[in-house]
Write a structure and sequence with these properties.
The structure holds two protein chains of two kinds.
Chain A (H helix, E strand, L loop, with lengths): L17 H34 L10 H13 L2 H33 L1 H14 L8 H8 L3 H25 L3 H9 L4 H38 L5 H10 L3 H29 L14
Helix pairs in contact in A: 2-10, 3-4, 3-6, 3-8, 3-9, 5-6, 6-8, 7-8, 8-9, 8-10, 9-10
Chain B lengths: L2 E13 L2 E13 L4 E5 L6 H9 L6 E6 L2 E2 L7 E4 L11 H12 L4 H11 L15 H14 L4 E5 L7 H18 L2 E6 L2 H7 L2 E6 L2 E7 L11 H15 L10
Parallel strand pairs in B: 3-8, 3-9, 6-7, 7-8
Antiparallel strand pairs in B: 1-2, 1-4, 4-5, 9-10
Helix pairs in contact in B: 2-3, 2-4, 3-4, 6-7
Classes of the chains: A mainly alpha, B alpha/beta.
The complex binds adenosine-5'-diphosphate (ADP) and magnesium ion.
């Protein structure tokens, strides 16, 4: 499940280069497109109110969604639901990332670990997480545990191959360099193999964020009385389309925010990667 | 550090029950402080020889001793410079040069690294990442990184092979200067006869898995490439390698 495409943002201090000018123009273009989209949506909704093509109850409009958000805000429940969703996804995702890195490192480093874990992982990884949720609820209860575990599980399954492949892909000549400079096996792993795999691992982390959000929403829709996913099911039962849209948009915004944080961290971590602003050929 | 190579055999594959030896009974002694060039056609086993001495490959038969000790795998006493610079892309120039020192927890790593960065003429580039360096600069960092770790011996596998002719020329001169300062034992691989004559105390020609020629170069340093004797050596090696009259071969 993906919520947003990764977009390249070029922070340009001055707009002297052609690439920087172009980036600025592109940005205004994109913002304009969004504004136009919401305007058209609202207008279409108003026309529908008048013409009754479909029951207006089933046609959410931007102003209605804002009104829903306002209601949830004033009675204080928006932050309760938002907070619990953030808590679940952050905790589950963090646990998943840590386990994936440790497990992936072991699998990539020791053939025995590979032989033990890979067949089991290959057996379970093709099964959609939805199929596991009822089991997890029975095992771990309807509380936070089952949700956090589900989110962690999906994160691990998604990330694992990025970790193992990244480590195994380390340029052999870098390994040779390091051992001839006196690195011991632990130093070789931490200072060379892991460093070399880190960009790939981070790519896996960014991708796993999408699946973690997917797992969160599923868990909240199937066995919860709080959270953004819960608002969606609850609103469905009462035909509150605006509330549903509000929750969906909140999920999207939350994801985008966390993805943006990861992107900022990434660009700080991997300054050493060659910066390519203009693409393969400057236009 | 002196290196004694005796009856060294190395094969990558077996065909019809026969080992296909890339190194087929190599015998070679390298004295402490000597600058040795190994010369040969591409595919003749030069890198294989270097990789066995470095400890990356295990010999099938024979022995390699450093002074008294048989070698067991790679070690910091044998520094290696690769054809592709092999710098750690996530480390700056200074951090790359410090790598070996960091592994041993040497306290003044930064200052020591600086000395070698200055020596290879890269003062001012300490905080650049390898992606921002030219090929020649990256190769110098590779040399500084190997030297900063103070190995007893330096193994260099066509370190100038990826550079353009002008850069190669100036790097050769620098390499000779650095060797005269540090007095390391150097095993230098090349497929260029003039390069070998310019740099080496002794040139080893490798052919069909054997040392086919072991020739001392009796010319004063720095070597004058216009000296007729210089060209005599070059011709001698080229005809040895190609097996034809040397004038018909264009080198480099
Ligand atoms: N890893 C390998 N596996 C199989 N054959 C190899 C391997 N490395 C080198 N060879 C073969 O061994 C021979 C010598 O290779 P190499 O030592 O790299 O030559 P050089 O460095 O002189 O060009 C070549 O024929 C090459 O194809
Ligand atoms: Mg080679």
């Amino acid at each position: 499940m993906t919520f947003a495409k990764e977009t390249k943002t070029t922070a340009a201090a001055s707009y002297k280069t052609a690439a920087a000018r172009r980036a600025k123009r592109d940005k205004y273009f994109k913002i304009g497109s969004l504004i136009l989209f919401f305007l058209l949506w609202e207008v279409l909704g108003r026309i529908n109110d008048a013409c009754q093509w479909v029951d207006p109850k089933f046609f959410p409009v931007p102003t209605g969604i804002i009104a829903s958000a306002y209601t949830y805000l004033t009675d204080g429940t928006l932050f309760t639901h938002l907070g619990i969703s953030v808590y679940r996804v952050v905790v589950g995702y963090a646990i998943g990332v840590v386990i994936a890195i440790v497990l992936g490192s072991l699998i990539a480093s020791f053939k025995t670990m590979d032989n033990i874990f890979s067949p089991i992982i290959n057996l379970f990884s093709p099964i959609p997480i939805m199929a596991f949720l009822p089991m997890f609820i029975l095992w771990f209860g309807i509380g936070e545990q089952s949700k956090v575990i589900l989110i962690a599980y999906t994160t691990i399954i998604y990330m694992l191959s990025y970790v193992t492949e990244g480590i195994k892909d380390t340029d052999p000549v870098l390994i040779r360099s390091a051992v001839s400079l006196g690195a011991n096996p632990w130093q070789l792993f931490t200072r060379v193999k892991f460093q070399s795999a880190f960009p790939n691992i981070f790519l896996g982390m960014k991708g796993a964020l999408g699946t973690a959000f997917g797992a969160m929403v599923v868990a909240e829709m199937m066995g919860a009385s709080t959270g953004l996913g819960y608002i969606i099911v609850f609103s469905k039962n009462w035909f509150k389309m605006n509330d549903m849209m509000m929750a969906a948009i909140a999920i999207g915004l939350l994801y985008s925010l966390m993805f943006a944080i990861l992107t900022v961290v990434e660009s700080a971590l991997f300054k050493w990667k060659k910066e390519t602003t203009g693409g393969a050929v400057e236009k | 550090m002196a290196v004694y190579i005796e009856h060294l055999f190395k094969a990558y594959e077996e065909r019809d029950g026969e080992m296909q030896y890339v190194l087929n009974d190599v015998n070679l002694t390298i004295e402490t402080g000597e600058f040795i060039c190994v010369l040969g056609k591409s595919g003749c086993g030069k890198s294989t020889l270097l990789n066995v001495i470095a400890g990356y490959l295990k010999p099938d038969k024979g022995s390699i001793r450093l002074n008294e000790d048989e070698i067991h795998g790679p070690s910091a006493e044998r520094g290696v410079v690769f054809q592709q610079h092999a710098l750690f892309p996530w480390r700056t120039v200074s951090q790359n040069v410090q790598f070996g020192l960091n592994m041993r927890g040497v306290p003044d790593a930064k200052e020591i690294a600086q000395k070698y960065i200055d020596m290879v003429g890269l003062t001012g580039y300490e905080n650049k990442y390898p992606s921002g360096l030219s090929g020649g600069m990256a190769q110098r960092v590779g040399i500084a990184r190997a030297l900063a770790n103070d190995p007893k011996m330096l193994l260099m596998d066509e370190p100038l092979g990826a550079l353009d002719a002008l850069t190669r020329d100036s790097m050769r001169r620098e390499l000779e200067r650095i060797w005269q300062i540090t007095k390391k034992t150097i095993l230098f691989i090349t497929h260029s006869a003039p390069e070998a004559v310019y740099l080496a105390d002794r040139v080893i020609v490798l052919q069909k898995g054997k040392v086919s020629l072991d020739q001392r170069i009796d010319l004063p340093r720095p070597r004058d490439i216009t000296n007729p004797k210089f060209n005599d050596y070059v011709r001698q090696f080229e005809s040895e390698i190609t097996g034809v009259a040397a004038d018909s071969v264009i080198t480099e």
